[in-house]
Amino acid sequence: MRNRIRPLLAVCCVWVIGAGPAPEPTMDAPEPSELNVPYDGPELDGSNVAGCTCTDNNLCTTDTCLQCFFGTCLGGCLHTPVSCNDGNPCTLDSCNPDNGACRHVTNPCPDSNLCTTDSCNPSTGCVHTPRFCGDGNACTNDSCNPINGLCTHFPVGDGSTCSDSNACTINEACSGGRCVGVPPDCDDGSDCTTDTCSPATGCVATDNSDPCDDGDACTTDDTCAGGSCVGGPAPDCNDDNECTDDSCDPLVGCVTADNSQPCDDGDACTTADTCADGACVGGAPPDCDDGNGCTTDSCATATGCVSSFNSDPCDDADACTTADTCAEGSCVGGPAPDCDDANACTDDLCDPSVGCVLADNSDPCDDGILCTSDDRCIGGSCRGEEAFRLETWRQFAECYNGVGAAVEAGCECFDVDGDDSIDLGDFAEYQNVFVGE
Questions:
Q1: pTM to 2 decimal places
Q2: CA–CA separation, 162 vs 131, rounded Å?
Q3: Beta carbons of 74 and 67 less than 8 angstroms apart
Q4: 248 and 242 in contact (C-beta within 8 Å)?
Q5: Which pLDDT belongs to residue 10?
Q6: Which residues are CB-neighbours of 35 under 8 A, at least 6 positions away?
Q7: Where are the domains of the chain?
Q8: pLDDT grade, residue 112 (50/70/90)?
């Protein structure tokens, strides 16, 4: 029994020493073990037992007596707040002390920073997202003023590299807070593409059908197709000069080279015309002789050989005509020739092939020599029979007296040629007439 009253005596002693009313046990009241008073009473289970009351008149706490001794709470009261935690970090949980009901108010998550946007993530809790002040301009430093929550954009230093996100500018650099570039060179060097620029993709080369130059001087009307220059028809290199060989060189175009081909100089009065130094040079004149003596042969530049009738003397190839004359392009024979040779010992004829023909006859004749008789033509000459026979040549020699000398008596028969002298002429005739058979 003595042991059981020690706690009470201790309390009494404390109260007496404190000279005040006995305090209510609190969460800070000493545990029985701290009083060094042995306790062998009923087991303390922490509940309000044996009439120990620890109420704080707060419906939002659960009141518990730590040590209850015969209706007296010796170990102090424990006031445990009611748990209103709904497990949602996005609500502010509390208990209403008037009715003990839990309240769950949306958590605004304020961080007192005007440069953040406050929100709550049910999984992680409050989220303070910095305000986005980016102006899309690489040439400004963007920030937020925490005093007023306004964005500020201060230019960066000129010359800083940047990108304006425009594919149609290059070498961009900041200047006065702006990103400035220069246009790219979109010329692809092809006449067959139309070169433009798309801000999204950059240079664009579109095939066209413009006139162009394929670099081949041997094509004309070149036109673009499929991005390439396509040559057209070949040029007409014909210079209409038959004395040049016309060709085409891809580097320079039409080329003419002199040749030496036969040609026509347009003059009908030249032959074997030949090209020389790019011109047609006439050759020798044509042979306009038509072989007709009764035409006058000439040459006209436009038409060539011309034969005109003449009235020239000619030869009708008939030896039995004379004074032949041209008429209407033909040779007309004139009178027959005089074929009389005044020799009674020839028959005078005319052969068209050779003309006059003398044929010996044997007609009677007169040889003009008084010393002959019965004269007759022999071998084309008139010969008489001897009137007497001369004995020797000596007789002729005796009668020979030279030219101009008178014929001596008895020598008359030796004057054969009748020139009234006995000379060498008579000697020859004497041989023919009297001796030469």
A1: 0.39
A2: 23
A3: yes
A4: no
A5: 33
A6: 6, 7, 10
A7: 2-81, 388-435
A8: confident
